[in-house]
Amino acid sequence: MSKAGALDLASGLGGKIDKSDVLSAVDKYEKYHVCYGGEEEERKSNYTDMVNKYYDLVTSFYEYGWGESFHFAPRWKGESLKESIKRHEHFLALQLGLKPGQKVLDVGCGIGGPLREIARFSSTSVTGLNNNEYQITRGKALNRVAGVDKTCGFVKADFMKMPFPDNSFDAIYAIEATCHAPDAVGCYKEIYRVLKPGQCFAAYEWCMTDVFDPNNQEHKKIKAEIELGNGLPDIRLTHQCLEAVKKAGFEVVWEKDLAVDSPLPWYLPLDKSHFSLSSFRLTAIGRFITKNMVLGLEKVGLAPQGSQRVQAFLEKAAEGLVAGGQKEIFTAMYFFLARKPHSDSE
Ligand SMILES: C[S@@+](CC[C@H](N)C(=O)[O-])C[C@H]1O[C@@H](n2cnc3c(N)ncnc32)[C@H](O)[C@@H]1O
């Protein structure tokens, strides 16, 4: 079961950051971003610090609001958010053609929600790679509860420098994670290196679409809000992402922005005009309650100083994601399936 109560939210807030340092961590984190005068180059050269601060600060909010899987999903009418998230994970497993007993790598695995689901769905052994220590601690505890701790595990490392030998894995996937990479080609090259020849890599990427106009002030503001609210150094265009996959050496089997055909929009859970009992904490009223609860918890000292500021930049993220989705300038659903050729000549 996920850590879901208000006190869990408060106690996990800040992750591995000392509680007395949370406020200054929020300050430093915000200063990396355009909304607070930050520069892209600085975010890229300090990506480890920026991304780790972000996940230390937000993971307990994510768990409280989303559960164990930290990603969006295309959704059918009548399908709950939870069902759509699981289906999106099963889809990835099917695309990769996972077979029982295979060794799979989950790049940027969060607290392991997708890892546990995919391992149980496909009877594979999944290793979660993550550079955030707090998330790994949570993931290990949840793996024990789910009973997959004998076959699945975690490795703490940067996906730009993976501690695995060449040709180690039968399949690799990344769900809304490699968008944190300061250099997409470098990241995909590492994935290529550790994947066995002839095998596949599949990803869901966060991207700006071709509708995005870099000279439009409103578009730029939305992009900056998404970067701030989600710990991103930059957001690549879908075609830049695809070029990077090819440059890393992969052959692309197929690719598509899955947002285009989704009967319900992926950003619906965060849309303030939408109400849902099953994902109540993500709705406008749910977020209003959380905001006041965090205010109270911070006042009485149960949540560290700075907690409300984290809630505030997550609120900005939600607004940016909904606006980006509605204007179709941003997608959280860019999918590709790519294969590592058998040899360089093939
Ligand atoms: C949006 S979360 C998605 C987590 C997970 N894939 C899921 O869907 O639940 C992005 C994840 O990527 C991880 N990450 C970001 N940059 C990383 C890096 N350089 N090396 C390893 N993991 C990284 C974060 O710590 C986080 O766990």
User: Taking all residues together, what is the mean pLDDT?
Assistant: 93
Low-confidence stretches: none
The CATH class assignment of the domain at 81-263 and 327-339 is: Alpha Beta
- Please give the radius of gyration in angstroms: 19 Å
Count the helices. How many? 12
CATH architecture of the domain at 81-263 and 327-339: 3-Layer(aba) Sandwich
The helix fraction, in percent, is 40-55%
Terminal Cα span? 46 Å
Query: What is the count of β-strands?
Result: 7
In CATH, the homologous superfamily of the domain at 81-263 and 327-339 goes by the name Vaccinia Virus protein VP39
Enter the CATH topology name of the domain at 81-263 and 327-339: Rossmann fold
Note the beta-strand portion.
15-25%
What hetero molecules are bound to the protein chains?
A: S-adenosylmethionine
What general form does the structure show?
globular
Spatial strand sequence of the major β-sheet: 3-2-1-4-5-7-6
SS-based structural class? Answer: alpha/beta
